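Q: Here's a chain of 429 amino acids. Please give me its 3D structure as C-alpha coordinates.
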Amino acid sequence: MLEGTGTKACSRGSDPEAYRNACPTETPRRQYRMTDRFATSQAIVLALGCLLTLLSASAPARAEWAGRSVNCDRGQSVARALRFALPGSRIVVRGTCHEHLVIRRDRITLVGLDGAIIDGSGITPRNEGTITILGAQDVTLSGLHVRNGPDQGVAVVQSSRVVLRDIEATGNATAGVVADRSEVRLANVTAADNRGGGFDLFSSSTVVATGPLAARGNGGTGLALNAKSLLELRGAVVTASDNGGDGVLIVNSSDLTILSFPEAQGSGVVTSNNRGNAGMFVANSTVTVVGSNFFGAGNNELTASGNNVGFLLTASNLSSPFANARISAEGNGVGLLLADDSSAFVVGGLTLRGNGLGLLADGAGVVNLQHTDALESSIQGNFGADVNLAFGTRARIQQAIPVGVLLCDPSVLTPLALPPSEPPVYACP
Protein backbone atom coordinates (compact mmCIF):
# COMPACT_ATOMS: atom_id res chain seq x y z
CA MET A 1 0.00 0.00 0.00
CA LEU A 2 1.10 3.56 -0.65
CA GLU A 3 1.84 5.37 2.52
CA GLY A 4 -1.03 7.56 3.69
CA THR A 5 -3.49 6.41 0.99
CA GLY A 6 -4.63 2.94 1.87
CA THR A 7 -4.34 2.01 -1.79
CA LYS A 8 -2.27 -0.71 -3.30
CA ALA A 9 0.54 0.38 -5.58
CA CYS A 10 -0.34 0.07 -9.30
CA SER A 11 2.21 -1.90 -11.21
CA ARG A 12 1.66 -4.17 -14.25
CA GLY A 13 4.24 -6.65 -12.89
CA SER A 14 3.79 -10.24 -13.88
CA ASP A 15 0.22 -10.77 -12.60
CA PRO A 16 -2.39 -9.19 -14.96
CA GLU A 17 -5.27 -10.09 -12.62
CA ALA A 18 -3.62 -8.34 -9.70
CA TYR A 19 -2.98 -5.30 -11.90
CA ARG A 20 -6.64 -5.03 -12.91
CA ASN A 21 -7.79 -5.36 -9.25
CA ALA A 22 -5.24 -2.83 -7.98
CA CYS A 23 -5.91 -0.22 -10.67
CA PRO A 24 -9.68 -0.05 -11.28
CA THR A 25 -9.51 3.42 -12.88
CA GLU A 26 -7.52 2.21 -15.87
CA THR A 27 -10.43 0.26 -17.30
CA PRO A 28 -12.80 3.25 -17.51
CA ARG A 29 -10.00 5.30 -19.05
CA ARG A 30 -9.57 2.66 -21.71
CA GLN A 31 -13.34 2.50 -22.20
CA TYR A 32 -13.49 6.28 -22.63
CA ARG A 33 -10.86 6.21 -25.33
CA MET A 34 -12.75 3.56 -27.25
CA THR A 35 -15.98 5.50 -26.87
CA ASP A 36 -14.26 8.67 -28.15
CA ARG A 37 -13.02 6.90 -31.23
CA PHE A 38 -16.48 5.50 -31.87
CA ALA A 39 -18.05 8.95 -31.57
CA THR A 40 -15.54 10.42 -34.02
CA SER A 41 -16.25 7.66 -36.51
CA GLN A 42 -19.97 8.32 -36.15
CA ALA A 43 -19.40 12.01 -36.87
CA ILE A 44 -17.41 11.23 -40.00
CA VAL A 45 -20.05 8.82 -41.25
CA LEU A 46 -22.76 11.36 -40.54
CA ALA A 47 -20.86 14.09 -42.44
CA LEU A 48 -20.31 11.81 -45.43
CA GLY A 49 -23.98 10.91 -45.39
CA CYS A 50 -24.97 14.58 -45.45
CA LEU A 51 -22.58 15.23 -48.33
CA LEU A 52 -23.94 12.33 -50.34
CA THR A 53 -27.47 13.52 -49.66
CA LEU A 54 -26.64 16.98 -50.98
CA LEU A 55 -24.94 15.57 -54.07
CA SER A 56 -27.83 13.25 -54.77
CA ALA A 57 -30.25 16.13 -54.34
CA SER A 58 -28.33 18.29 -56.85
CA ALA A 59 -27.90 15.49 -59.40
CA PRO A 60 -31.51 15.64 -60.66
CA ALA A 61 -31.18 19.41 -61.10
CA ARG A 62 -27.99 18.99 -63.11
CA ALA A 63 -29.61 16.27 -65.19
CA GLU A 64 -32.70 18.41 -65.73
CA TRP A 65 -30.76 21.47 -66.91
CA ALA A 66 -27.78 19.90 -68.65
CA GLY A 67 -29.18 16.81 -70.29
CA ARG A 68 -32.84 17.26 -71.05
CA SER A 69 -34.99 20.20 -72.08
CA VAL A 70 -35.66 23.86 -71.39
CA ASN A 71 -39.01 25.49 -72.04
CA CYS A 72 -38.61 29.25 -71.83
CA ASP A 73 -42.38 29.74 -71.95
CA ARG A 74 -42.46 28.08 -68.53
CA GLY A 75 -39.85 30.35 -67.04
CA GLN A 76 -36.88 28.03 -67.55
CA SER A 77 -33.50 29.37 -68.69
CA VAL A 78 -31.10 28.20 -71.38
CA ALA A 79 -28.31 30.24 -69.80
CA ARG A 80 -28.78 28.34 -66.54
CA ALA A 81 -28.72 25.04 -68.43
CA LEU A 82 -25.43 26.05 -70.02
CA ARG A 83 -23.96 26.88 -66.60
CA PHE A 84 -24.66 23.31 -65.45
CA ALA A 85 -23.75 21.69 -68.78
CA LEU A 86 -20.81 19.32 -68.97
CA PRO A 87 -18.93 18.58 -72.21
CA GLY A 88 -21.14 16.31 -74.27
CA SER A 89 -24.42 17.78 -73.01
CA ARG A 90 -27.42 18.07 -75.32
CA ILE A 91 -29.95 20.74 -74.43
CA VAL A 92 -33.36 20.86 -76.13
CA VAL A 93 -34.97 24.31 -76.26
CA ARG A 94 -38.63 25.24 -76.67
CA GLY A 95 -40.47 28.52 -76.47
CA THR A 96 -39.28 32.11 -76.77
CA CYS A 97 -36.16 32.80 -74.71
CA HIS A 98 -35.18 36.40 -73.95
CA GLU A 99 -31.55 35.62 -73.24
CA HIS A 100 -27.92 36.24 -74.11
CA LEU A 101 -26.07 32.91 -74.41
CA VAL A 102 -22.32 32.30 -74.32
CA ILE A 103 -20.99 28.80 -74.99
CA ARG A 104 -17.43 28.22 -73.85
CA ARG A 105 -17.47 24.48 -73.18
CA ASP A 106 -16.62 21.87 -75.81
CA ARG A 107 -19.10 19.35 -77.21
CA ILE A 108 -22.28 21.24 -76.44
CA THR A 109 -25.37 20.66 -78.59
CA LEU A 110 -28.25 23.13 -78.50
CA VAL A 111 -31.35 21.93 -80.34
CA GLY A 112 -34.44 24.05 -80.90
CA LEU A 113 -37.82 22.38 -81.33
CA ASP A 114 -41.29 23.67 -82.17
CA GLY A 115 -39.99 26.99 -83.54
CA ALA A 116 -37.72 27.83 -80.60
CA ILE A 117 -36.60 31.49 -80.52
CA ILE A 118 -33.62 33.17 -78.87
CA ASP A 119 -34.54 36.86 -78.67
CA GLY A 120 -31.76 39.26 -77.72
CA SER A 121 -33.73 42.49 -77.64
CA GLY A 122 -32.60 44.65 -74.74
CA ILE A 123 -30.41 41.90 -73.29
CA THR A 124 -27.31 41.16 -75.33
CA PRO A 125 -24.23 43.30 -74.62
CA ARG A 126 -22.99 45.16 -77.67
CA ASN A 127 -20.12 43.69 -79.69
CA GLU A 128 -21.35 40.18 -78.97
CA GLY A 129 -23.77 37.76 -80.53
CA THR A 130 -27.13 36.94 -79.05
CA ILE A 131 -25.55 33.49 -79.13
CA THR A 132 -21.75 33.60 -78.89
CA ILE A 133 -19.56 30.50 -79.23
CA LEU A 134 -16.22 31.52 -77.79
CA GLY A 135 -13.06 29.40 -77.82
CA ALA A 136 -14.96 26.10 -77.99
CA GLN A 137 -14.81 22.95 -80.12
CA ASP A 138 -17.45 20.57 -81.45
CA VAL A 139 -20.44 22.81 -80.74
CA THR A 140 -23.68 22.32 -82.67
CA LEU A 141 -26.65 24.68 -82.92
CA SER A 142 -29.75 23.55 -84.78
CA GLY A 143 -33.39 24.48 -85.18
CA LEU A 144 -33.13 27.96 -83.65
CA HIS A 145 -34.44 31.37 -84.71
CA VAL A 146 -32.07 34.04 -83.36
CA ARG A 147 -33.52 37.53 -83.59
CA ASN A 148 -33.45 41.15 -82.48
CA GLY A 149 -29.95 41.26 -81.03
CA PRO A 150 -28.51 44.75 -80.46
CA ASP A 151 -25.40 43.51 -82.27
CA GLN A 152 -24.81 40.15 -84.00
CA GLY A 153 -27.16 37.20 -84.16
CA VAL A 154 -24.86 34.15 -83.94
CA ALA A 155 -21.14 34.83 -83.44
CA VAL A 156 -18.52 32.06 -83.67
CA VAL A 157 -15.22 33.38 -82.33
CA GLN A 158 -11.92 31.49 -82.16
CA SER A 159 -13.72 28.17 -82.26
CA SER A 160 -13.42 25.00 -84.35
CA ARG A 161 -15.63 22.22 -85.65
CA VAL A 162 -18.75 24.28 -85.07
CA VAL A 163 -21.94 23.26 -86.88
CA LEU A 164 -24.86 25.63 -87.55
CA ARG A 165 -27.81 23.76 -89.02
CA ASP A 166 -31.37 24.95 -89.65
CA ILE A 167 -30.66 28.39 -88.18
CA GLU A 168 -32.48 31.63 -88.96
CA ALA A 169 -30.93 34.96 -87.91
CA THR A 170 -33.18 37.99 -88.42
CA GLY A 171 -33.60 41.56 -87.25
CA ASN A 172 -30.18 41.87 -85.63
CA ALA A 173 -28.46 45.26 -85.49
CA THR A 174 -25.31 44.23 -87.37
CA ALA A 175 -24.68 40.82 -88.98
CA GLY A 176 -26.90 37.79 -88.73
CA VAL A 177 -24.11 35.18 -88.64
CA VAL A 178 -20.42 35.87 -87.89
CA ALA A 179 -17.33 33.62 -88.09
CA ASP A 180 -14.14 35.17 -86.70
CA ARG A 181 -10.94 33.08 -86.77
CA SER A 182 -13.07 29.96 -86.72
CA GLU A 183 -13.87 26.71 -88.51
CA VAL A 184 -17.59 26.36 -89.18
CA ARG A 185 -19.97 24.15 -91.14
CA LEU A 186 -23.23 25.68 -92.32
CA ALA A 187 -26.34 23.95 -93.65
CA ASN A 188 -29.75 25.49 -94.24
CA VAL A 189 -28.89 28.81 -92.61
CA THR A 190 -30.77 32.04 -93.37
CA ALA A 191 -29.66 35.57 -92.52
CA ALA A 192 -32.46 37.97 -93.40
CA ASP A 193 -33.57 41.51 -92.64
CA ASN A 194 -30.60 42.31 -90.43
CA ARG A 195 -29.75 45.99 -90.33
CA GLY A 196 -26.12 45.25 -91.16
CA GLY A 197 -25.01 42.32 -93.30
CA GLY A 198 -26.23 38.76 -93.52
CA PHE A 199 -23.12 36.59 -93.17
CA ASP A 200 -19.76 38.05 -92.13
CA LEU A 201 -16.95 35.48 -92.42
CA PHE A 202 -13.49 36.92 -91.74
CA SER A 203 -9.98 36.69 -90.22
CA SER A 204 -8.78 33.41 -91.73
CA SER A 205 -12.03 31.60 -91.07
CA THR A 206 -12.74 28.34 -92.92
CA VAL A 207 -16.39 27.78 -93.71
CA VAL A 208 -17.83 24.71 -95.45
CA ALA A 209 -21.43 24.97 -96.62
CA THR A 210 -23.12 21.59 -96.96
CA GLY A 211 -26.65 22.91 -97.38
CA PRO A 212 -28.37 26.04 -98.65
CA LEU A 213 -27.47 29.51 -97.40
CA ALA A 214 -29.81 32.45 -97.89
CA ALA A 215 -28.98 36.13 -97.40
CA ARG A 216 -31.91 38.38 -98.24
CA GLY A 217 -33.17 41.82 -97.39
CA ASN A 218 -30.19 42.80 -95.24
CA GLY A 219 -29.15 46.44 -94.98
CA GLY A 220 -25.57 45.72 -96.04
CA THR A 221 -23.80 42.91 -97.89
CA GLY A 222 -25.56 39.59 -98.13
CA LEU A 223 -22.46 37.44 -97.58
CA ALA A 224 -18.97 38.84 -96.95
CA LEU A 225 -15.83 36.72 -97.11
CA ASN A 226 -12.88 38.74 -95.85
CA ALA A 227 -9.24 38.64 -94.71
CA LYS A 228 -7.82 35.32 -95.97
CA SER A 229 -10.99 33.38 -95.38
CA LEU A 230 -12.28 30.39 -97.33
CA LEU A 231 -15.83 29.44 -98.28
CA GLU A 232 -16.13 25.97 -99.79
CA LEU A 233 -19.47 24.97 -101.28
CA ARG A 234 -20.07 21.26 -100.86
CA GLY A 235 -23.49 20.64 -102.35
CA ALA A 236 -24.72 24.05 -101.21
CA VAL A 237 -26.33 26.92 -103.08
CA VAL A 238 -25.83 30.45 -101.74
CA THR A 239 -28.72 32.80 -102.54
CA ALA A 240 -28.12 36.51 -102.02
CA SER A 241 -31.02 38.77 -102.96
CA ASP A 242 -32.44 42.21 -102.26
CA ASN A 243 -29.58 43.29 -100.01
CA GLY A 244 -28.58 46.93 -99.59
CA GLY A 245 -24.94 46.17 -100.41
CA ASP A 246 -23.32 43.58 -102.64
CA GLY A 247 -24.87 40.17 -102.84
CA VAL A 248 -21.58 38.33 -102.21
CA LEU A 249 -18.35 40.16 -101.35
CA ILE A 250 -15.01 38.29 -101.51
CA VAL A 251 -12.03 40.44 -100.54
CA ASN A 252 -8.50 40.55 -99.11
CA SER A 253 -6.99 37.24 -100.27
CA SER A 254 -10.11 35.16 -99.71
CA ASP A 255 -11.38 32.23 -101.76
CA LEU A 256 -14.74 30.89 -102.90
CA THR A 257 -14.25 27.30 -104.08
CA ILE A 258 -16.26 24.42 -105.50
CA LEU A 259 -14.11 21.29 -105.53
CA SER A 260 -14.46 17.97 -107.34
CA PHE A 261 -15.87 15.87 -104.50
CA PRO A 262 -19.03 14.03 -105.59
CA GLU A 263 -20.89 15.66 -102.71
CA ALA A 264 -19.80 19.09 -103.95
CA GLN A 265 -21.70 18.84 -107.22
CA GLY A 266 -24.85 20.88 -107.56
CA SER A 267 -23.29 23.82 -105.73
CA GLY A 268 -23.70 27.42 -106.74
CA VAL A 269 -24.15 31.11 -106.03
CA VAL A 270 -27.29 32.95 -107.14
CA THR A 271 -27.44 36.73 -106.73
CA SER A 272 -30.31 39.01 -107.66
CA ASN A 273 -31.51 42.56 -107.17
CA ASN A 274 -28.77 43.68 -104.80
CA ARG A 275 -28.26 47.43 -104.55
CA GLY A 276 -24.50 47.57 -103.97
CA ASN A 277 -21.75 47.46 -106.58
CA ALA A 278 -22.38 43.94 -107.78
CA GLY A 279 -24.12 40.64 -107.37
CA MET A 280 -20.66 39.16 -106.74
CA PHE A 281 -17.78 41.57 -106.01
CA VAL A 282 -14.31 39.98 -105.87
CA ALA A 283 -11.25 42.05 -104.90
CA ASN A 284 -7.73 40.64 -104.49
CA SER A 285 -9.26 37.19 -104.23
CA THR A 286 -10.24 34.12 -106.27
CA VAL A 287 -13.33 32.23 -107.39
CA THR A 288 -12.58 28.67 -108.51
CA VAL A 289 -14.89 25.97 -109.82
CA VAL A 290 -13.06 22.69 -110.25
CA GLY A 291 -16.29 20.76 -110.52
CA SER A 292 -16.81 17.05 -111.08
CA ASN A 293 -14.48 14.50 -112.58
CA PHE A 294 -16.66 14.46 -115.69
CA PHE A 295 -15.54 17.16 -118.14
CA GLY A 296 -18.43 19.28 -119.30
CA ALA A 297 -20.86 18.20 -116.61
CA GLY A 298 -21.86 21.82 -115.96
CA ASN A 299 -23.67 20.88 -112.79
CA ASN A 300 -22.54 23.88 -110.75
CA GLU A 301 -23.93 27.37 -111.16
CA LEU A 302 -22.91 31.00 -110.74
CA THR A 303 -25.81 33.30 -111.65
CA ALA A 304 -26.37 37.05 -111.40
CA SER A 305 -29.45 39.03 -112.37
CA GLY A 306 -30.86 42.47 -111.69
CA ASN A 307 -27.67 43.87 -110.12
CA ASN A 308 -25.65 46.93 -111.12
CA VAL A 309 -22.87 44.56 -112.19
CA GLY A 310 -23.36 40.82 -112.28
CA PHE A 311 -19.76 39.77 -111.57
CA LEU A 312 -17.18 42.43 -110.72
CA LEU A 313 -13.53 41.43 -110.34
CA THR A 314 -10.68 43.75 -109.44
CA ALA A 315 -7.14 42.34 -109.06
CA SER A 316 -8.76 38.92 -108.88
CA ASN A 317 -9.16 35.65 -110.75
CA LEU A 318 -12.18 33.70 -112.00
CA SER A 319 -11.40 30.12 -113.00
CA SER A 320 -13.62 27.35 -114.39
CA PRO A 321 -11.21 25.19 -116.41
CA PHE A 322 -13.18 21.93 -116.77
CA ALA A 323 -16.56 23.03 -118.13
CA ASN A 324 -18.21 22.12 -114.86
CA ALA A 325 -19.97 25.41 -114.17
CA ARG A 326 -22.67 27.43 -115.85
CA ILE A 327 -21.78 31.09 -115.34
CA SER A 328 -24.56 33.40 -116.42
CA ALA A 329 -25.42 37.08 -116.07
CA GLU A 330 -28.69 38.51 -117.33
CA GLY A 331 -30.49 41.79 -116.73
CA ASN A 332 -27.58 43.57 -115.03
CA GLY A 333 -26.04 46.91 -115.91
CA VAL A 334 -22.85 45.01 -116.86
CA GLY A 335 -22.74 41.24 -116.97
CA LEU A 336 -19.04 40.60 -116.26
CA LEU A 337 -16.55 43.35 -115.45
CA LEU A 338 -12.81 42.60 -115.19
CA ALA A 339 -10.54 45.43 -113.96
CA ASP A 340 -7.11 46.08 -112.42
CA ASP A 341 -5.30 43.10 -113.93
CA SER A 342 -8.08 40.63 -113.20
CA SER A 343 -8.16 37.44 -115.24
CA ALA A 344 -10.79 34.97 -116.32
CA PHE A 345 -10.20 31.42 -117.57
CA VAL A 346 -13.55 29.90 -118.44
CA VAL A 347 -14.03 26.74 -120.49
CA GLY A 348 -17.64 26.48 -121.58
CA GLY A 349 -20.84 27.50 -119.86
CA LEU A 350 -20.49 31.32 -119.98
CA THR A 351 -23.69 33.13 -120.92
CA LEU A 352 -23.96 36.94 -120.94
CA ARG A 353 -27.19 38.31 -122.36
CA GLY A 354 -29.80 40.98 -121.75
CA ASN A 355 -27.37 43.20 -119.84
CA GLY A 356 -26.61 46.83 -120.57
CA LEU A 357 -23.13 45.63 -121.55
CA GLY A 358 -22.08 41.99 -121.73
CA LEU A 359 -18.35 41.74 -120.96
CA LEU A 360 -16.26 44.79 -120.03
CA ALA A 361 -12.52 44.15 -119.58
CA ASP A 362 -10.84 47.42 -118.62
CA GLY A 363 -7.17 47.12 -117.69
CA ALA A 364 -7.68 43.40 -117.25
CA GLY A 365 -5.07 40.68 -117.32
CA VAL A 366 -5.81 37.71 -119.57
CA VAL A 367 -9.37 37.01 -120.71
CA ASN A 368 -9.27 33.39 -121.87
CA LEU A 369 -12.68 32.10 -122.96
CA GLN A 370 -12.77 28.67 -124.58
CA HIS A 371 -15.50 26.79 -126.39
CA THR A 372 -16.58 23.22 -125.77
CA ASP A 373 -19.43 21.35 -127.41
CA ALA A 374 -20.22 19.74 -124.07
CA LEU A 375 -21.20 23.08 -122.54
CA GLU A 376 -21.65 25.97 -124.95
CA SER A 377 -21.02 29.66 -124.26
CA SER A 378 -22.68 32.74 -125.70
CA ILE A 379 -22.10 36.50 -125.40
CA GLN A 380 -24.78 38.24 -127.37
CA GLY A 381 -28.14 39.97 -127.09
CA ASN A 382 -26.94 42.69 -124.72
CA PHE A 383 -28.22 46.24 -125.16
CA GLY A 384 -24.81 47.87 -125.65
CA ALA A 385 -21.63 46.16 -126.75
CA ASP A 386 -21.48 42.46 -126.11
CA VAL A 387 -17.69 42.56 -125.51
CA ASN A 388 -15.76 45.75 -124.79
CA LEU A 389 -11.99 45.36 -124.34
CA ALA A 390 -9.98 48.36 -123.14
CA PHE A 391 -6.76 49.70 -121.63
CA GLY A 392 -4.19 47.00 -122.30
CA THR A 393 -6.42 43.97 -121.76
CA ARG A 394 -5.10 40.73 -123.25
CA ALA A 395 -7.91 38.73 -124.81
CA ARG A 396 -8.14 35.20 -126.19
CA ILE A 397 -11.78 34.52 -127.02
CA GLN A 398 -12.36 31.58 -129.32
CA GLN A 399 -14.45 32.27 -132.40
CA ALA A 400 -16.60 29.24 -131.77
CA ILE A 401 -18.22 31.26 -128.98
CA PRO A 402 -21.03 33.41 -130.45
CA VAL A 403 -20.21 37.08 -129.81
CA GLY A 404 -22.41 39.93 -130.99
CA VAL A 405 -20.80 43.40 -130.97
CA LEU A 406 -17.07 43.41 -130.19
CA LEU A 407 -15.30 46.68 -129.36
CA CYS A 408 -11.59 47.23 -128.68
CA ASP A 409 -9.36 50.23 -128.09
CA PRO A 410 -5.87 50.34 -129.67
CA SER A 411 -4.13 49.24 -126.46
CA VAL A 412 -5.81 45.82 -126.39
CA LEU A 413 -3.64 42.82 -127.20
CA THR A 414 -5.19 39.95 -129.15
CA PRO A 415 -3.29 37.18 -130.97
CA LEU A 416 -2.49 38.14 -134.53
CA ALA A 417 -1.91 34.57 -135.64
CA LEU A 418 -2.20 31.14 -134.09
CA PRO A 419 -0.88 27.74 -135.13
CA PRO A 420 -3.33 25.84 -137.35
CA SER A 421 -3.81 23.27 -134.61
CA GLU A 422 -5.39 25.85 -132.29
CA PRO A 423 -8.98 27.09 -132.62
CA PRO A 424 -9.20 30.60 -134.09
CA VAL A 425 -9.83 33.52 -131.77
CA TYR A 426 -11.38 36.94 -132.19
CA ALA A 427 -9.10 39.78 -133.20
CA CYS A 428 -9.85 43.39 -132.52
CA PRO A 429 -11.34 45.16 -135.53
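Q: Can you summarize the key feature?
A: Residues 68-164 form one domain.
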